[in-house]
Amino acid sequence: xxxxxxxxxxxxxxxxxxLDILFSSFLLLFFSPILLLSAxxxxxxxxxxxxxxxxxxxxxxxxxxxxxKLRSMIQNAHELLREDPxxxxxxxxxxxxxxxxxxxxxxTTVGRFLRKHSIDEVPQLANIxxxxxxxxxxxxxxxxxxxxxxxxxxxxxxxxxxxxxxxPGLTGYWQVSGRSEINFDKRIQMDAEYVRHRSILYDLGIVxxxxxxxxxxxxxx
Length: 221
Fold this sequence. Notes:
Layout: H1 10-45, E1 57-58, E2 64-65, H2 77-83, H3 88-96, H4 109-116, H5 124-130, E3 134-136, H6 143-152, H7 157-163, E4 169-171, H8 184-197, H9 200-216
Parallel strand pairs: 3-4
Antiparallel strand pairs: 1-2
Helix pairs in contact: 1-4, 1-5, 7-8
């Protein structure tokens, strides 16, 4: 997918990558007991793997990558939504809702708790260590989500190009500002605003707001 570079200094990029490695390594160790308990709860609650088998996301420079997440839905949830004729109406509602669903019937009992407190997102710390993601950045979008939402909101095309010039983040500006309560057009503009004004201090401010967003579960689906 096309992107529009918004460059920052080499110093910023080096410091940001160093902080990504430092923070993600520490947080993986810190959350390891919670990840183990969550994995056990997932296996006891429903059939299927511990990790979600989700479609690839779009990363920096428009390149696809595999995002790691704990499974919070029934097995093969994404394929069923897109391919099962019985879920056609649900899929249309999913697309109209900026690729978010309230009261999604595919979410498991344990998954609802994991999603509310963003525990399902913790394995993305491994994506940060791999270099696919950053601790702070825009949302990692699905390819079909970007295509469909740009048709619905054609005024967002420039913002999408800006967003795709950087690594997606585990947390970000919109995630600490309402999460799923924000529709795609406003969300992508917020992501683009972050890319234009990003700095180490800006990143640290978002990081400090993230724990409350996780604990409160505001805007989570």
